């Protein structure tokens, strides 16, 4: 009996021990597998990042030809905001429009639109876009860049009808307001999408192309309105340019339907297989390892918080600094001479040029802007974003002050030509340096997880600053307002100088940096002027 009792523990205890040991072994194997899997992922990520660092611009183009194509298509959506902004600016100087909706001014001996309506018409679209960009962030975070953009394109088709059939200034105002809603989606999504679908070496040209399409929009408007400003006082002079807006949304919608979603967005959503397929569609299989590229993206995404993105996070920790940089760059676009470019035709008229000459100079300005944007691609290949922005803004400050001086001397043909020349130089120089490089900074600065929200709130800042600036610009140029003409150069020169000082102390250099490196430097709170000198090791994760 005692033998049997004594044998019980000998028979049962090893069973428990064996089960415990097997469980421990399984857990150990799982832990090892996880660690091994993480190590393999990190090795793949480091390899993908190394390849991107070693690529030249031409090698990147050869490896990712379709990424370049889809960045081009997405950037094309910007042409619609540009077209309409310049269209309204030109309508204010268009005889057929001013005779229909304006009044005869005894001082200037011509028909003009009342100052309050000039400002209202030019800020209505921006007010709508301000609403649109706040909608764009949550919408894009939820359904992706592709479907958010398609939603905007369909909405754009509908809102053009209101503007086409408008027969009073209040209806034009409402039409512009509604058209602004899809603009907000396009302008918030385009720089983010373009920067996410291309490799590091192509981030600058892929985002700078946005400025080129802005110039193309103004060229089309300039050519159309220039042809109608001579002797045509009928409604067709402004209705046909309005109707031409319909040539953009539907063809773009068809193309965007076939566009790949941003692989970064897909990785954020945990759709790794779809992200890999998206990468394969963007690049050539012979040059691109989709598995390693997804690993690189996962590494960056895992460095950031796993919480759902929201606007409050933009103002916390290191993301606050990144948000302020994006907002500051956007705001500066209105404070460094850009509004003179947007009101070029009206500015040239107030500088003393005839209507015919003013429209011709406006068209020439737009054409030069497009050429200089393309030249800026060469500039960003060899020089950093920070250097280009600071020296470009400094040049504009000097030119704006020179414009003010030219307008301060006794009026003559020479002073009028000098004002027109400086106005043209400011408009073109802005699109050669500060403007295109701004899009690079906007596309690179924000964290991957918060990018749709950051670009949205950054563009909202642009509109918040632009709306009062439009009122100020219209007042300064209008003969029934401040009637300053070229003396407005003093005002914009002062605001541009302020932007220059802020950029010197706050704008970091991000050329040639991966998104992982940028994340780490912001988390380490590296001073802006030290970014270029800071070394981040390939194995660093924080």
UniProtKB/TrEMBL annotation:
The record gives the membrane topology as:
Multi-pass membrane protein
What's an example of a GO molecular-function annotation for this chain? Answer: carbohydrate:proton symporter activity
Reaction it catalyzes: myo-inositol(out) + H(+)(out) = myo-inositol(in) + H(+)(in)
What's the protein here called? MFS transporter, SP family, general alpha glucoside:H+ symporter
- TM annotation in the entry: 69-97, 117-135, 147-166, 206-226, 324-346, 358-379, 388-409, 421-439, 460-477, 489-507
Classification via InterPro entries:
MFS_dom, MFS_sugar_transport-like, MFS_Sugar_Transporters, MFS_trans_sf, Sugar/inositol_transpt, Sugar_transporter_CS
What PROSITE patterns does the database record attribute to this sequence? MFS (PS50850), SUGAR_TRANSPORT_2 (PS00217)
Query: In the UniProt record, does the keyword Membrane occur?
Result: yes
Keyword terms of this UniProt record: Membrane, Transmembrane, Transmembrane helix, Transport
State the SUPFAM superfamilies in the record. MFS general substrate transporter
């Amino acid at each position: 009996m005692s033998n049997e009792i004594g044998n019980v523990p000998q028979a049962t205890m090893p069973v428990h021990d064996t089960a415990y040991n097997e469980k421990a072994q399984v857990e150990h194997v799982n832990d090892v597998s996880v660690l091994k899997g993480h190590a393999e992922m990190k090795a793949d990520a480091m390899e993908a990042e190394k390849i991107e660092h070693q690529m030249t611009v031409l090698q990147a183009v050869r490896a990712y030809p379709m990424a370049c194509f889809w960045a081009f298509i997405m950037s094309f959506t910007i042409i619609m905001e540009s077209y309409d902004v310049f269209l309204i600016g030109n309508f204010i100087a268009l005889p057929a429009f001013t005779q229909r909706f304006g009044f005869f001014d005894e001082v200037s001996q011509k028909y003009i639109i009342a100052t309050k309506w000039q400002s209202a018409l030019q800020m209505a679209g921006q007010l709508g876009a301000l609403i649109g960009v706040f909608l764009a962030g949550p919408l894009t975070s939820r359904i992706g860049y592709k479907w958010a953009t398609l939603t905007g394109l369909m909405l754009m088709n509908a809102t053009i009808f209101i503007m086409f059939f408008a027969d009073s200034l209040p209806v034009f105002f409402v039409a512009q307001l509604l058209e602004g809603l899809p603009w907000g989606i396009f302008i918030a999504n385009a720089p983010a999408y373009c920067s996410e679908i291309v490799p590091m070496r192509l981030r600058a040209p892929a985002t700078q192309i946005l400025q080129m399409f802005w110039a193309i929009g103004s060229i089309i408007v300039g050519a159309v309105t220039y042809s109608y400003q001579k002797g045509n006082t009928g409604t067709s002079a402004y209705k046909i340019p309005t109707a031409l807006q319909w040539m953009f949304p539907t063809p773009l919608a068809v193309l965007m339907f076939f566009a790949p979603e941003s692989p970064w967005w897909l990785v954020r959503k945990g759709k790794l297989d779809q992200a890999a397929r998206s990468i394969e569609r963007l690049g050539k299989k012979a040059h691109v390892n989709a598995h390693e590229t997804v690993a690189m993206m996962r590494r960056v995404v895992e460095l950031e918080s796993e919480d759902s993105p929201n606007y409050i996070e933009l103002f916390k920790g290191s993301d606050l600094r990144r948000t302020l940089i994006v907002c500051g760059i956007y705001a500066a676009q209105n404070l460094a001479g850009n509004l003179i470019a947007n009101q070029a035709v009206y500015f040239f008229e107030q500088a003393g040029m005839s209507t015919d000459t003013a429209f011709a100079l406006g068209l020439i300005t737009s054409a030069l802007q497009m050429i200089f944007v393309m030249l800026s691609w060469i500039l960003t290949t060899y020089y950093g974003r920070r250097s280009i922005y600071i020296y470009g803004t400094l040049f504009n400050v000097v030119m704006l002050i020179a414009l003010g001086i030219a307008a301060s001397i006794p009026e003559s043909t020479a002073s009028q030509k000098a004002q027109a020349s400086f106005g043209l130089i400011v408009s073109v120089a802005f699109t050669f340096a500060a403007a295109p490089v701004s899009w690079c900074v906007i596309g690179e600065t924000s964290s991957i997880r918060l990018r749709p929200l950051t670009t949205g709130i950054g563009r909202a800042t642009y509109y918040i600053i632009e709306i009062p600036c439009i009122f100020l610009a219209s007042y300064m140029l209008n003969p029934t307002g401040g009637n300053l003409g070229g003396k407005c150069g003093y005002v914009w020169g002062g605001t541009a100088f302020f932007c220059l000082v802020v950029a010197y102390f706050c704008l970091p250099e991000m050329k040639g940096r991966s998104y992982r490196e940028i994340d780490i430097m912001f988390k380490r709170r590296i001073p802006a002027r030290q970014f270029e000198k800071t070394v981040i090791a390939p194995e660093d994760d924080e």
